[in-house]
Design a protein that fits this description.
84% of the residues lie in helices and 0% in strands. The protein has 8 helices and no strands.
């Protein structure tokens, strides 16, 4: 009975930071990551030599280092050189840059999967490179990349728990505080896992719905 009362009392205390912090952190970070990913993918697809090398370096560094260390470098490391960033913006910056590297590779692969004949047809129609990318290639590429990008969004929801390490008051950190007070670690962490599962399930259902809509339109 004591555990049930504790879980009932703590549910909203954990859920509310999820709605106020975890979801906004995910939405803002993933939106910025998509912008980064598209730009970096375009640079590679256009084969602009110097910019392509910079893009590959960025992807190499970000994908080759742990997300947690990236958070620590930005939040705890940069103040040593005079750059101080508040916890939430620091988390947004790191998650955006991190996911942008992965999204760039996903989108690049999708861009390269679009038949070259469509690009040539665009030139024949009098369109320039940017217009062809924006109106012809990118819509098809994003459609092909959608399942992978949607999976990345779901993964990011769970990865936001790492933001607790730089004092962002999201669900995991709130749960840790309740555990420190009650010593009911198993029950509370299982409750937290259930809430993450709820968020992931909603996104999974939305992904399935949108994929069906896109497949219907493309049929």
């Amino acid at each position: 009975m004591k555990i049930i009362n504790l879980l009932t009392d703590s549910f909203l205390k954990i859920l509310l930071p999820g709605i106020r912090v975890t979801i906004p952190l995910t939405v803002i970070s993933f939106s910025l990551a998509m912008v980064i990913g598209i730009l970096v993918a375009f640079v590679q697809f256009a084969n602009i030599r110097v910019l392509k090398q910079l893009a590959r370096f960025y992807i190499w560094v970000i994908r080759g280092t742990p997300l947690l260390i990236q958070l620590f470098v930005v939040f705890y490391g940069l103040p040593s050189v005079g750059v101080i960033i508040d916890p939430f913006p620091a988390a947004v910056i790191v998650f955006s840059i991190n996911e942008g590297a992965y999204s760039a590779e996903t989108i690049r692969g999708a861009l390269e999967a679009v038949p070259k004949g469509q690009i040539e047809a665009g030139y024949c129609s009098g369109l320039n490179f940017v217009q062809i990318m924006w109106h012809i290639v990118l819509p098809q590429a994003l459609r092909m990349a959608f399942p992978s990008l949607a999976n990345a969004l779901i993964a990011m929801v769970k990865s936001t728990s790492l933001a607790a390490n730089i004092t962002v008051m999201e669900m995991f950190m709130v749960t840790q505080q309740i555990v420190a007070r009650t010593y009911e670690a198993l029950a509370l962490y299982l409750e937290l896992a259930f809430i993450y599962l709820m968020f992931s399930t909603v996104l999974t259902r939305l992904q399935t719905y949108l994929e069906k809509r896109m497949n219907t339109r493309g049929a």
